[in-house]
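Dear colleagues,

As part of the handover before I leave the project, I'm documenting each prediction I ran so the next person doesn't have to rerun anything. This entry is a single chain, and its sequence is reproduced below.
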Amino acid sequence: MITDEKMIADFSFKNFLSFKDQMTLSMVPWPKTHKGELDDNVISLMDWSTELLKSAVIYGSNASGKSNVLKAIDFMKWMVLYSHKINPNEPIFPMMLEPFRLNTSSRNNPSFFELSFMTGEDIKYTYNFSLTKQKVVSENLIAYYSNKPTVLFTREWQDIDLKKMKWGEQWKTWIRENTLVVSVLANYNVEEALKINKYFSDIHVFWGRSDIDTMNLLETDTKFKDFLIHFIKIADSGIQDLKHEQNEIPFSQLQQVEKDILKQSAPQITFADDSKIKKVELGFSHDVYDDEKKIISRENIQKLKESLWTQSMFDLAGSVYNVIKNGKILFIDEIDRSLHPLLLKKLISVFHNSSGDNISKKYQFIFNTHDTNILDIDELFRRDQVWFTEKNKYGESKLYSLLEFKERKWSPVDRNYLKGRYGANPLLVGGDDLFANM
């Protein structure tokens, strides 16, 4: 059984993109939920004394901040894994770090990020940091080996106390003002920092239209192909098999359009005619019928010629497989992209009820969507799993839970959301005279 699972309890962030004030996405179950209410959506930890939610869904209008929640966790992950590589006096990845700019104070204030999480050893950690584009302002790591917290290190600017970190003190001179303590110490194999680094490396953020995980698994995991075919059949039952071949061929044998793409993507490389290029052939097998509807052969169709939803399922499959088999965490932006509402419902149900001897029972997926067909608090989600984002007239986004509204168990949440009961809907103002002066 897999024992290296990682679970989010709470994720908080402040002064980041459209979020000015501190917001918290909690995966801790609401204690007043009735027993037996969608029990498959809850994961038990620490000999059943602790529980966390398996999933969360975020609704909101366009530009309300839904994707910014995912960008916040993605940035936090990047800082933990890679900030030790930032050069001295270099800004902290300005493309990802952006404070709330529509307020004169916040644009100059530091951004804050905090994650409380469980590891496969059932140890709870709380880790946070605040920073500007130039410097780390604060950083703290607390471990709960029991109910009593143990402060592993604290930091205020460059005043760093590493007394609880084994072998940590000798690395203090390597921690620059634009790097995180955990990132630097993990780079030097300090045990406790490596645990935090490993945790964040197992957080996956899927932005869509990327098949990197799927392609990697096709090359490294012999069991993945069968899963992939079965997964894609949820979207297209006509697919019978997958053709995946890769060969090395001389550059001279590529088509001209393939040569041009290679040269544009790697202008620093000079390709000789005998340069070996890895070429991947990828397609799906479909049955071919005669006029009497009898199968006479199979036809391979390239992935790019398949439907958008088949391509979407292919791209997503690798991340889903990784997370469910190995006990990881998956954030998905716009999960409804190119997927039929019934297909999406089926997919969510599969996530919640996955079973098998070789998969982990402790994984989480968090996603945003516009699809109200899955906003079903009887069959798919509990009320403590539903979240909303809304932006006010000052440009400030807010993240809040369905629990903030008193609803009866049988209330039609999907219809109430569209009616505006929970906010998080677009203000449909103007536009009637859009074409008047054309």
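The domain at 7-206+313-418 is CATH 3.40.50 (Rossmann fold). The chain is about 25% helix and 25% strand.

All the best with the project,
I.
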